[in-house]
Each structure stands twice: as C-alpha cells, then as structure tokens.
Amino acid sequence: MEELATEKEAEESHRQDSVSLLTFILLLTLTILTIWLFKHRRVRFLHETGLAMIYGLIVGVILRYGTPSTSGHDKPFSCSQEDRPFTTLLVNVSGKFFEYTLKGEISPGKIHNVEQNDMLRKVTFDPEVFFNILLPPIIFHAGYSLKKRHFFRNLGSILAYAFLGTAVSCFIIGNLMYGVVKLMKLVGQLSDKFYYTDCLLFGAIISATDPVTVLAIFNELHADVDLYALLFGESVLNDAVAIVLSSSIVAYQPTGENTHAFDAAAFFKSVGVFLGIFSGSFMMGAVTGVVTALVTKFTKLHCFPLLETALFFLMSWSTFLLAEACGFTGVVAVLFCGITQAHYTYNNLSVESRSRTKQLFEVLHFLAENFIFSYMGLALFTFQKHIFSPIFIIGAFVAIFLGRAAHIYPLSFLLNLGRRHKISWSFQHMMMFSGLRGAMAFALAIRDTATYSHQMMFSTTLLIVFFTVWIVGGGTTPMLSWLNIRVGVDPDQDPPPTNDSFQVLQGDGQDSARRNRTKQESAWLFRLWYSFDHNYLKPILTHSGPPLTTTLPSWCGLVARCLTSPQVYDNQEQLREEDSDFILNDGDLTVTYGDTTITANGSSGPHTATTNLDNRRTKSSSEEALERDLGAADHEVTSRGTRLVFPLEYNA
Amino acid sequence: MEELATEKEAEESHRQDSVSLLTFILLLTLTILTIWLFKHRRVRFLHETGLAMIYGLIVGVILRYGTPSTSGHDKPFSCSQEDRPFTTLLVNVSGKFFEYTLKGEISPGKIHNVEQNDMLRKVTFDPEVFFNILLPPIIFHAGYSLKKRHFFRNLGSILAYAFLGTAVSCFIIGNLMYGVVKLMKLVGQLSDKFYYTDCLLFGAIISATDPVTVLAIFNELHADVDLYALLFGESVLNDAVAIVLSSSIVAYQPTGENTHAFDAAAFFKSVGVFLGIFSGSFMMGAVTGVVTALVTKFTKLHCFPLLETALFFLMSWSTFLLAEACGFTGVVAVLFCGITQAHYTYNNLSVESRSRTKQLFEVLHFLAENFIFSYMGLALFTFQKHIFSPIFIIGAFVAIFLGRAAHIYPLSFLLNLGRRHKISWSFQHMMMFSGLRGAMAFALAIRDTATYSHQMMFSTTLLIVFFTVWIVGGGTTPMLSWLNIRVGVDPDQDPPPTNDSFQVLQGDGQDSARRNRTKQESAWLFRLWYSFDHNYLKPILTHSGPPLTTTLPSWCGLVARCLTSPQVYDNQEQLREEDSDFILNDGDLTVTYGDTTITANGSSGPHTATTNLDNRRTKSSSEEALERDLGAADHEVTSRGTRLVFPLEYNA
C-alpha cells in the first residue's frame, strides 16, 4: 500500500510536470499565431519576444491568483543533520530505503512557501536549465549566422565595443549602483547586506546587450548592413564577455574579514580567471569546430546528409559539454564553435546539410528564445523571492543609460580616430538606443538568487528587460526614420561607404606604400591572421583556398599533397560563389573605398567627397563595377593557383 | 564555508553530468563515422543500431572495470521516518534548510552500491527519460513517415497483425514463460516471487517488434513495398498495442490475498483500461493533428516557414503532454498525431516547411534511436541490478520464437482467406524472421526494475534485443535472396501484383456488381471511411479534395462555402501530384489488378495468370499505362468538381 501511494504521487507529479510544460507550449503556440497575425498585417511595434513576455505575464497572473494554494500531499519533513548537507540522502521509511537528491537551500522565511503552491513550484524551472539547455542553441545560432563579410570588415570596432565597452559599462554601472546602495542604506531602505562585488556583478549581468528586437526589424527593413554588423557582432561577443566577467567577479573573494577592502591578490586572481576562462572556452570552441571541419573534409560524409547533420549537431553540442566538463564556460565555447563551424565546416557540408543545419538551429533558436522570454513574463508573478526596491530600480535605469552612453560615445570617438570611414552620429545614437537587455541578462541574474542582494538584482533585471524590449523594440522603426538611417540595402550588392574597411594590402606594389599611411594598427594584425587563414587554415580545413602545395615550403611537399583536397583545383570558383555570405572573399578585403582604390581604376574624381545620402546611390553602381573588376582579378589569381597577391597589381 | 562546500559539490556533480553526456555524444559520433564507413563500403551485415550497441558495450566495460569505485563526498545519510516516504524533504543542517526530492527506492542489499561508483550512477538515466524524451520523436517520425498509399492498401492485414497478433503473441509468451517459471521453481532456480501477471507483462513487453535493421535494408535495396508496408505498419502499431497492453496488465490487480486466482472483475477492469487508454490516446493524437491542420489551413502561416515549422513542432509535442496530463499514453497519442499530421496537415504546409519538418524529425529520430541503442549496450554492464537466469533466458528465446510463429502463420492463413492477393509463404517467413525487438521493448522493460521478477525480465529483454538485432540484422540480406523476395522495386511506379488491394468501388455502374463479389468485408468499412475522409475531412482540413459545396447537403451551403478554401478549385491537380507519397490517391484505390480491371482496358488476356517474376516486368509497363489512364480520368473527374465517381465508368 505504501508503494502504491508513492507511485500515485510520482504519477501525480509527472502529470503536473506535463501540465506545466503544456502551459509553456500553449503560450508559445499563441505567440506564434499572434506573430503571424502581426507579420501578416505588418505591425512592427511589438516583437515576438515582447509578445511572448506579455502572454507569459498573463499566464503568470492566472497561475498566481487563480490556482488554489493547497498541496496537502508532500508536506516537508524535517530532521536535523550535524554537518554540511549531502547531495544524496538515504531515508529509512519503516524498513525500506529511499534515495533523495539535494535540490537547494531554502531561506528560513520561505519554508512555508515551499509547501504553498504546487503549480507555482512546477512552473519554476531550475535556473541551470537556461544555461545548459536554452542558451546554447541561441548562442550557437548567433555564431553560426554571423554574416562573415560584414562582421570581419568591422572586426576591430566590434571587438572594441564588446571587450572594452562591456568592461567600461560594467564598472560604471557597478560604481553607480554602489552609490545607489549607499543612498539606500542612508534612507534605511536596505534590510540586508549588499557588497561592492554585488554591485559589480550587477554591472556585469546587465552589460550583456541583446538587441534581438532591433535586429529583427533591421533584418526586415534591410537596414544598413554595417550598422547591423556592429550591433549584432557587439551583442554576440559581449554576451560572452559578460558571462566571463560575472564569473571572475564571483571568483573575487578578498581574504580576511573586511570584504570591502581592495585586495590586489584577489583582483589579479579575478583577472587571471577572466583570461583563463575566456581563452579556454575560445580554444574549446575552436578545437571542436576544427575537428568537425577535418572530419567533414576527409570523409565523404556529405553523401549522407542525415549522418552529416547529426554529426554536426553532436560535435557542436559536445563543445558545450567539453567546456563545462573542463571547468570553462560552455556558452562561450559554443559561440566560438559556431563561428568556426560557419567559417570552415560549412564549406565542407553538402548543399542539403547546409540548409538542414541552418534550419535546425534556426528552429531551436526560435523556440528557445521565445521560451525564455515567455518564462520571464511568467517569472514576474510566479517567482517567489522578488524584492522590488524603487530606489534601486530607478538607480539601475539611470545607471544603464549612463553606462551605455559612456560605452558608445567615447569609444566611437576613439574608434573614429582610427577609422577612415567614421561611425556617424546617427549610427552612434542608434547603437546607444539599441542597448536592450534580454535572455542573457535574465539567465545570468536568475542563476543565483540565494541572497537578498541577488534577489533584488534579479527583480530589477527583469524589469529592465521588460522595459527595454517593449519600449525600445516598439521605437525602433520611428527611431530609424528619425535618425535618417537608410533601409532597403541589399547586403550582397551594396558595400556601405561610410564605414571602416581594413585595408589589407597583400601585395608590395608601388601603390601600397601610399595606402599604408592610412592603415590602422589593427589591420596589420588582421592581415597577418587573414593571410595565415587563407593560405594555411582554409586549405587544410576546407576544400577551398589555394592548394597547400603552393603555400607551404617545398620540404612539406608530401604533407601538403595529403592535406590538399583534389577538389581545390576544380571546385574553387564554384565554392567561392556559393558561400559569398559566409566566406570572407579576397575581394572584400582588398576593396578600399574612396580615393586610393578609385585611383587604381582611373576615376577618382566624383567619388572622393560624397557623403550625403543621395549621392550614395549613384556611387554604389560604380562601386559595384569596381567590385566586379576586383572579383574577376581575384578569380584569375586563384585559378592560377599561386599565392594570394593584391589584385590591383594586375589591374594597374 | 558550508555554502562553498555545497557549491563545490554541485559544480562537481554538474561536471560529472557533462562528462557522462559527453560519453554518449562521443559514442554516437563514433557510431556515425563507422556507419559512414560501412555505407561507403556497402557493408550491410551490421546496422547502425547494432553498431551503437557494440560501442555502448565497450564503453560499459570500461566504465565498469576501468573507473575507481570511490565516492567519498556524498555518503548517504540515514534517518528514520514513520510514515510512507514524502516526495519532498526538508532537512535542517545546522540551522539552514535544504530541500531534497525523492529519487526512488533502493533495495536494502544495494545500499552499498549506491555509494560505490559515482560514474556508473551518472550514466544511469532515469527510465522515464526514454518514455518522455527519446521515444516520442522516434514514434512520431514513424507515424509521420508512413507511406500512406501502401499502408492503406494493406490496412486490414496490418491492423490484424498489430492487434490480434500482438495479443496472441503476448498471451502465448506469457503462458510459456509461466511454465518456465514453474520449472525454475521446481529446480530451485527462483529465489523470489514471480507471478502469472509478471509473465504476462513480460509477454506484452517483448511483443513490441522493432524491425529497424530489416527495414533499413529494405529501404536501401528497395525491397517489395507491400512487404515493407506490412512489416513497418505492424511494428509501428504494435508498439502502441504493447504499451497499452502492459499498462492494462499492470492495472490487473485481483482483490483479496490470492494473487494467482483469476478475478473476472479485475480482468474486465483491465480490458476497460486497455480500451480506455487506447481510444483516449488515439483521440488526443487525432484531435491535435486536426487542430494543427485547421490552424495551418485557415492562417497564411505558410508564408513564414520558420513559424510554421515551430508551430508544427509545438503542436505535435503538445499531443504528448496533453495525453500524459490526461492520464493517457503520450507515446501512443504521438503516433496517431504523426499519422494525422502526415495525412492532413502536411498538405497545408509550405514546400519549405514540408522538408523542414521531415528533416527535423528525421534527425531527432536518428539521434534518439541511436542513443537508446548505445544506452542498451552500456546498460548491460553499468546497470547494477541484473539478474541473469539461464533457464529463463533460454525459455524466453524459445517462447518469442513460438509466439512469433503463432502470431504470423495462423493469422496469415486467416488473412489469406479474405485477401485476393495472398501473403506468400516467402513473405510469411520473412515476417517471422523480422520479429526483432528494439527500443520499445527496452523502454518498457527498464520502466520498472524494482522487483526481482522485473529485474530478471529486464536482463532477459536486453539479451533478446542484442541477439535479434545482431543476428537478424546481419541475416536480412542473405534471407531476402534465399526467400527470393524481389528487390529494386520503385514504390511509385510499380504497384505490386501479389497483394491485397481494397477494391473500393465508388461508382454504381454495371461493372461494380461483378467486382463486389470479390470484395472483402473490411473493404466495406474502409470504403465508408474513405469516402467520408475524401468528401468531408480532406476538404475541411486541407486545400485538396472536392469542394464542400458539392459534397455537403445544400442546406449547409454557408458553412460549406466558409470551410472550402478557394484554392480547392485551382490547386487540386498540383497538390495531387506533389503529395503522391502521402495522399492516398483515388487512383490507388480504384486500381484493381488482374482480370477485372484489365477487362475494362480491353486487354485482359496476357495479364490474368502471370505470377512469376519475369512476366511481372512486362506486366508493370502495361499497368503503368493503365494507371496513367486512371490518373487522367481521375483528374477529369475532380477538375469538374463533382462527387468522386469510379473512373472506369468514363473509360468504358
């Protein structure tokens, strides 16, 4: 009879699990249908994620106030233990042994809540679900769908925004919030401890921008591709930076009693943790990406798209697990794995697998993202440890505004010093405006809600996400037209004229000396990487690029012949055309807009000083012709199978 | 410090989780690569599932004997409870409260095993994972990829094999095993209780056939499509029957002390449970399928394939959860949902979504299936409660052989009485031979391994799966050639001549009276269903079929106009061609091979008595012509928008 009762309870628990999951699925279904209606009617003021949150809110209210708060069955049982808690517990129930696993700590005040409402408990997921199940496909998809060409063109600026900018934003927000906390202590609004490290952690959590709604509208309206690349690249990379930053802040633990004092040793330990986790995760991602590329290159797996897709999926997932198992951050590793897969493996896949993998991750990404946002809506009412402090919330809104401003404007100013094609004021305002917070900030905040300070941070983060997604998401279209940012750009046809382009000049002709004057420092590093990538990595890992037999020294002849795929000689041109979105063409790199290039083409006159919107249209057509020229020269070079040489030499 | 220790342990536990999942992913990756090698070299003696098991075995051995069996950290803690166990436990550890959840019972003898090997525990999944996560995509894919045409042609036989056959097999195996158990008791090999109901449960578990390896080879060699349909249809449906049978056997609990005696009330309760669960699950599956069809029909969701695919995925998943929440069987509901989706919703999807949904579920199915099989290999060594009893195992092998024989041969004999195109001896032998056991038997057996009898059943099931998958999988190709079963059949071009075809004659011309003489009883029922489906369900749920305005009575005019999609009039022919694999064409149903049809074509002579292989080739070409004829007539009929009439009338 006891067994039966246990079984019944397990069954009941399973049924409730099903109901709670069903709730989310119905929520998502409803979201999808409404989104369709919105897209159908061309409504743009509310993005699907914003909608998912609204539906989540409604269901949250119903669950909170509409379900009975009785749960007679599983009354908690208390028995005292001496030592620290075990992860496994064996309990003797009238002669039979039952195994229990540790779920987590419960603050003494909340004990009665635990038994209060079964349904609310059921819809509350383990926070690790977000990090281990929902975020990886989102982040991988982001890495896998980075538009390589525009991303690499703006790599320097993107890295600066993501690393420097996020760090700046984190410290400014952290310090401002510390001021707010001091103020709260003064007016007696703070009822528990709130350390400086907590404030910094909040800064790190809230510095992960997620302009999902803005980018969706950019995509739909075909807004300027370089602004898109800057925003998307920044948001993708700063997620990684924010995760690692928050881990290193948690690792900062001053020795001794005074946790407020600055401890140099702990600080350097934190910096070490940051560098270690970041580089380790990066390595993990790159390594599994490279392994996948090698496997898909040297087997003829592309005859069986199902096997290929499955392998691709498994290898990408294993990145995450490998990084977690080694103590690095899986989500960060997955991001770099996605980028590597797109850069190398994608070229080795069969045509069917390319669309399969893209579509598979697109669906996973879509479902995971909307799930997280609807969960956020739900959590506002069902999460049981909210602490809303008006001062803290207002302070946080001001702090993120100031933090974003201190991140975008000074950095853009500095970058513009080095960039030939400046980031215009309208772009800067748009980037300032697009500092939404989304899934990543939420996942970071919900990860640890054990203490008073973390609970307050979580509640505040939730409100910030709501506010930014709704207001900023709805205001994107008006903002775009107000700032006069051009839309309807074809990303493949029209290279934007107002942005930095790394002037990678591979040749050593007489033109290059003149061009080198305007070359930024970063371009030197990037050029080195690019030639290494093009001459060695691409040929080793994919079927494209120049044959290794020509790029490697002659004493490596045998190895070079083994590693070079026979298709290199035949397929090069075909591949080149197919992957235009994904492979960084030589043409893209060697194109330099403005006077220098045009000189080479013998028509510099009218293009040098044109910056206003109308002239751009006429300009683009002649630039297209230039690109075609360069493309042809490029093909000529590669089809001869020689080293990559600056194409303009041939034009001159 | 305590908190830190707990955190460290949680981290360590997470790391081990990652490692164990990583193990499985590497196993699957290895399987994929080897499979590619096998396919590349055209090796057919070992299927991917068999290979996955072998790799699983190897890793199992390594984990069992190669990892240290120490786990000092989580020593179990015992404290006595008075009553039955709670699902949630609150434990007071020096003033702090921790929450624990019930994991399951542990037999007293195994307490020390619990603490023995962490790694082994980590790779042991909760049995419900199989039922709730891995089986649904497998079963849904099976339903979604049923080749409708050949499936419906043989529906009567498939239903007979699946329902009657599985019941016969279950009872024969159950009774034989009861004899074996009695024998074991006599020779003193039985150390604990083993009831008659346990034997019947074993019969139900082991009656779920899974000819995955055979079907893979059939697919590759393009073996006879009707044999394929019979085997595949039987295996898909008998999974459902076996699940529901085992649930009803578990529900059979005689009142009073003597559990051996037959209890009529309990028996009828079991039958009621069977019927209730089966019909309930069927309804759930059908309803969500129909809802999805309606949603995809009446919204223009097909303009956004991503939304459409996501909706399709969510709705199909919700079937499972809905059925589980209502106390029915999710896996069975998912099966019928898959069939409904393929029959109706598939027609409403955009071309892109069709391939997306197919590919998505194909990948999920592939991964889940291979995961289960590699887990099986692993479980042989890592599962800690194995009981291998030689007598029971030998008895079980004999019993499944006899059970399969008693299932196939008598039933085929009975079916052949009614079928015009008999199931030949070679087909019967092949079906007898293809009685493999796979994922479903395993999932059913591992679900409950609490008692001695269930543990013995689980170990035996595992061995049966190994044996049948390896031996039968390897022997399929020789068996096919030995039995002279034709291969290289094009399923769309060549309708097989040696099988039953439901002679659904919709017209009332003078030919039909003659044809009705040969009509089976089941065809009457099926005809009724078919005309209902074609005239009402198809037009309501999809964009195909005759307009409702012509099939519904005139007083429903308004409703009919609302429900009929405007595309019906235009798109009919186009849709018809696209879905030839999925939609049951009228042409398929009305084609009757042999004398009667050929008469209508005026060339009955040479085709009437041709049954040997060589003549079939010549026959097929004239049959093709006939099908084209019928097809044309069919189009003529439908394009006029009238009721479906037997096309031969127009030919005559």
Strand order of the largest sheet of chain A: 2-3
The oligomeric state of the chains shown is homodimer
Helical proportion of chain A? 55-70%
The outline of chain A comes out as: globular
Number of helical regions of chain A: 27
Whole-Å distance between the termini of chain A?
A: 92 Å
Give the C-alpha Rg of chain A: 27 Å
Spans of chain A with pLDDT under 50 lasting ≥5 residues?
71-76, 494-521, 572-652
Question: How many beta strands in the DSSP annotation of chain A?
Answer: 3
Brief descriptors of the model:
globular, disordered C terminus, 652 residues, mainly alpha, homodimer, 27 helices, two-stranded antiparallel sheet, 69% helix
Layout of SSEs?
The structure is a homodimer of 652-residue chains.
Chain A: H1 2-40, H2 48-66, E1 78-81, E2 88-93, E3 96-106, H3 111-114, H4 118-122, H5 128-144, H6 148-153, H7 155-186, H8 196-206, H9 212-221, H10 225-251, H11 264-298, H12 305-325, H13 330-348, H14 351-382, H15 390-418, H16 425-433, H17 439-446, H18 452-482, H19 510-516, H20 521-541, H21 548-551, H22 557-563, H23 567-578, H24 586-590, H25 595-601, H26 613-639, H27 648-651
Antiparallel strand pairs in A: 2-3
Helix pairs in contact in A: 1-2, 1-14, 2-14, 5-13, 5-14, 5-17, 7-8, 7-10, 7-15, 8-10, 8-18, 9-18, 10-11, 11-12, 11-13, 12-13, 12-14, 15-18, 17-18
